[in-house]
Amino acid sequence: MATFSPRLSPKDTQKPSVFAGHHATVICNECSRSMVPRVVVYYGRPTKSVCPFCGATFARFPSGLQQFLQRFSQKIVSFAAFKRIALVAAGFGLIWLLATIEILPSEMEALGICGSIIFSAFGLTELFYQTIEFIAEQLSHNSSYYWSAIALIAILIQYVRDDLTRYVVMTSFLMIVRWILAGFAAARNYSQ
């Protein structure tokens, strides 16, 4: 049985709803209640929507810079790139082995060594990146918190152990190069 407020006549309440045929509600991932998410605004910019019952974040709204950078990132965690890099590193390792046992010319040994070392380093970088993203996705966390913690650990390692600074710098360089290469690959796929 419906109740009416004094301002609305029974005839006005029988008009079709704006949401006729569509539901304006969603199910909260935390409390499993049907709800209409509330938008949280910070200085006029929507930042996230929350459940009005339990306060859990339902969706986050990226800033303009984040939207631009998302064009260069992959949305799906996949170890396919790691497999390709590992295959190339194994190919260079095979060239190195064949040149060492003198099946290939000895000049190819330097190519095999350099290619094997470079692609193995990029393979480990890709494996590290995908592992962090996979863990964050499995735990339903934002991966930027993990990357912030890793950056903090890298800075602390540089202060505590001076002899490890070159490894931290080399790893940072590999991560930056990996991000640039993956960004160009994602942008190329996005444009097609």
Helix run count: 6
Tally of distinct domains? 2
What is the β-strand count? 5
Strand content: 5-15%
Order of helices and strands: HEEEEEHHHHH
How would a textbook summarize the main sheet?
3 strands, antiparallel
Name the helicity range: 55-70%
Report the span from N to C terminus.
56 Å
Could you please describe the fold and organization of this structure?
This protein is mainly alpha-helical and 192 residues long. It has helices spanning 10-13, 64-70, 80-100, 108-138, 143-160, 165-191; strands spanning 26-27, 34-35, 38-42, 45-50, 57-60. The strands form two sheets. It has a three-stranded antiparallel beta sheet, with no helix packed on it. α3 runs antiparallel to α4 and α4 (108-138) packs across α6 (165-191). The longest helix has 31 residues, at 108-138. It is elongated.
Summarize the structure.
Helix content is 56%, strand content 10%.
Task: Describe the SSE topology.
Blueprint: H1 10-13, E1 26-27, E2 34-35, E3 38-42, E4 45-50, E5 57-60, H2 64-70, H3 80-100, H4 108-138, H5 143-160, H6 165-191
Antiparallel strand pairs: 1-2, 3-4, 4-5
Helix pairs in contact: 3-4, 4-6
